[in-house]
Amino acid sequence: MKRYSVILALVLFAAPAIAIPGGKADYNAKCAGCHGANGNMQTKKARALKTDAGKLSLKASKKNKAEMIEIVENGKGDMPGFKNDLKKEQILAIIYYVMALRKK
Q: Which long-range contacts (CB under 8 A, 24 or more apart) does 17-22 make?
């Protein structure tokens, strides 16, 4: 039983790290145009939206994982939703990538 607990813990904690490379590629393809390569929203598209910088800066965001998934899937404001373009796994990988950006 202890062995299964250790394996489960490793899988749960390793999943975000494993998801980041795919998340980075999808983030760059779908999100970086507005939110910036590092989540800092320094792009022409972001400035053209004339939106509050705090709303576009992913590094400054305090949203939790569930809130972020909701927004990526369904969109919010000027941001389109991606539930028809991305699989759930891709969306989750993007979320883990964004959460890793916050720590940098």
A: 19/89, 19/92, 19/93, 19/96, 19/97, 20/93, 20/96, 20/97, 20/100, 22/90, 22/93
Q: Give residue 25's pLDDT.
A: 93
Q: What is the pLDDT of residue 102?
A: 80
Q: What would the pLDDT profile of 55-77 be if each residue is shown by its tens digit? A: 666 767 788 999 999 999 999 98
Higher pLDDT, 6 or 51: 51
* CATH of range 2-102; options 3.40.50.970, 3.60.15.10, 1.10.760.10, 1.10.1670.10: 1.10.760.10
